[in-house]
Write a structure and sequence with these properties.
Elements (H helix, E strand, L loop, with lengths): L3 E3 L5 E3 L6 E7 L2 E7 L5 H8 L18 E4 L2 E4 L12 E3 L1 H4 L7 H8 L9 H14 L5 H7 L10 H16 L1
Parallel strand pairs: 3-7
Antiparallel strand pairs: 1-2, 3-4, 5-6, 5-7
The protein binds FE2/S2 (inorganic) cluster (2 copies).
Keywords: 2Fe-2S, Iron, Iron-sulfur, Metal-binding, Oxidoreductase
GO molecular function: 2 iron, 2 sulfur cluster binding; metal ion binding; oxidoreductase activity, acting on the aldehyde or oxo group of donors
Pfam families: Fer2, Fer2_2
């Protein structure tokens, strides 16, 4: 028997069945149909409903960048975004950037430059760096540092992350 409670207006409300709605998301080129509570973040939709656990939950408050994904090519914090807001958008996660046998240039550069230690921040760093490259604003090491400053690395791998991103940027320019 579902549990009910009474609202201030005296009406009975169902407490065990929150309202959900159908949400269509295009993730890594594949359309997914989900039934979600409207307050589900994009981060939770990816991790809890689609098993795309490459995207990490760090702070869940927009402060660390671990949850960065690309939406229509632009980097966003998926913990600050409701899944319903991204209906019909093209979402790319770390799983969609490359594969184990065919790493993206940034993924390869992170490996080559040893740009991680525990790896927890790495998917967010790489998605953010991809967004940075898409924006085309960073030209120097100082600009890369500034424009990647929303992505924290508790292991302090910053100088190697910078080298990796700089290499891909330089290769793009060449
Ligand atoms: S988990 Fe989203 S910014 Fe930290
Ligand atoms: S590699 Fe550990 S937090 Fe960045």
């Amino acid at each position: 028997m579902p549990e009910t409670f009474t609202t201030s207006s005296g009406a009975a409300a169902n407490a065990s069945l929150p309202p959900t709605r159908a949400v269509k998301l295009r993730i890594n080129g594949v359309e997914k149909q989900l039934q979600l509570a409207p307050w589900t973040t994009l981060l939770d939709a990816l991790r809890e409903y689609l098993d795309l656990t490459g995207t990490k939950k760090g702070c869940d408050h927009g402060q660390c960048g671990a949850c960065t994904v690309l939406v229509d090519g632009k980097r966003i914090n998926s913990c600050l975004t409701l899944a319903v807001m991204k209906e019909g958008a093209d979402i790319t996660t770390i799983e969609g950037l490359g594969t184990e046998d065919n790493l993206s240039p940034l993924q390869q550069a992170f490996v080559d430059h040893d740009a991680f230690q525990c790896g927890y921040c790495t998917p967010g760093q790489i998605c953010s760096a991809q967004g940075l490259l898409n924006e085309g604003k960073a030209k120097t090491a100082a600009e890369i540092r500034e424009l990647m400053s929303g992505n924290l690395c508790r292991c302090g791998a910053y100088s190697n992350i910078l080298s990796a991103v700089q290499e891909v940027l330089d290769n793009q320019k060449a």
